[in-house]
Specification:
Elements lengths: L15 E4 L4 E5 L10 E5 L4 E4 L5 H14 L4 E5 L5 H4 L9 E5 H10 L25 E3 L2 E6 L2 E7 L9 E5 L4 E9 L11 H11 L6 E6 L7 H21 L4 H6 L14 H13 L10 H11 L10
Parallel strand pairs: 4-5, 5-6, 6-7, 11-12
Antiparallel strand pairs: 1-2, 2-3, 3-4, 8-9, 9-10, 10-11
Length: 314
């Protein structure tokens, strides 16, 4: 039985707006744990391009307010890096923006819907607000180039990795990368709804972008050294999965008997269980990114977490 205990006594830091170049801004929500994602925006001469929205109505409102302090120009374009609610739940608050995402991002959002319609057993104490599902209505398969006046913005599909539909936002002239949840800074990577092997491939591909500044999906702004941290963790997951799988242990049993070692300092440790469920799927030879039993994986994550809902202070 899941214990519904409130995390409301813990407060997240106030989000910060960080100017990463003359016209590119990152909106950073620390500590970057469950539901505390990063977003960003690019200011053109005639309009604004936004990258992702936030988990709750209130948080997206605060993000939009931060944008208006920089520029009163209309928000014309919104890019979703993937389908998860912490990056898309606030889409509906930008009613005049063209919403762009991968074709599978649209599909997954329509399949899974938003937390108010489909209560999520993982979280407790989250004030969602009145969320309205608002999926991308311009979709692409591999690559798409946008312009914010003269600023070139490249969208590259990198999935399956964190999900089936991950897209990075690359601003080549300024060497700025918005990685979405391919990268977590200080938090445990999470590939339960994507692929371990696919994530490792995506990380190798990320190294081909000469990034000077990276805005990860969660955690502080960083540089490309973070890619190696992610690789190490995912290789550790593959090795751990192989050992547990060969002994006939379940993903949960394997997780409970595993020492996280150098990764024990990262928050959201329970993600190891979801990651092992995905790694086991790949060891069984199932297609990368194919559907697994998410309910059972989430239930095992909560068991690993002492029967509690995950820590979410969003």
């Amino acid at each position: 039985m899941t214990n519904i205990h409130s995390h409301n006594e813990q407060k997240a830091p106030i989000p910060t707006l960080e100017q990463v170049s003359s016209n590119v801004y990152a909106y950073v929500q620390l500590d970057g744990s469950w539901g505390l994602n990063n977003t960003g925006f690019i200011v053109g001469e005639n309009g604004i391009t936004v990258i992702d929205t936030c988990f709750t109505e209130k948080r997206t409102k605060a993000f939009i307010k931060a944008i208006t302090k920089v520029s009163k120009l209309p928000i014309r374009t919104l890019v979703n890096t993937h389908q998860h609610g912490d990056h898309t739940n606030g889409n509906y608050q930008l009613p005049h923006a063209t919403i762009i995402g991968h074709e599978l991002c649209r599909k997954e959002m329509l399949d899974i819907n938003v937390p108010t319609v489909n209560p999520n057993p993982m979280y407790s104490g989250v004030e969602w607000g009145n969320l309205i599902l608002s999926p991308p209505f311009v979709t692409f398969e591999k690559e798409l180039t946008l312009y914010s006046d003269y600023t070139k913005i490249e969208l590259h599909y990198m999935g399956p990795a964190h999900t089936t539909n991950d897209v990075i936002v690359w601003i080549p002239e300024q060497c700025i990368l918005f990685s979405g949840d391919l990268l977590f800074n200080g938090g445990t990577p999470f590939v339960m709804m994507g692929s371990v092997e696919g994530s490792l491939r995506a990380l190798r591909e990320l190294k081909n972008f000469p990034s000077r500044t990276i805005v990860p999906g969660h955690g502080s702004i960083c540089d490309s050294r973070i890619i190696e941290d992610m690789e190490k963790y995912l290789q550790f997951i593959q090795k751990t999965a192989k050992s547990g799988f060969s002994k006939g242990l379940s993903p949960l049993e394997t997780a409970l008997s595993t020492d996280l070692g150098e990764f024990s300092e990262w928050h959201d440790k329970e993600r190891i269980v979801g990651n092992l469920h995905r790694a086991y799927s790949e060891l069984r030879g199932e297609a990368l990114g194919s559907k697994i039993d998410i309910k059972s994986a989430v239930s095992d994550m909560l068991t690993y977490n002492g029967g509690n809902t995950v820590r979410c202070i969003a």
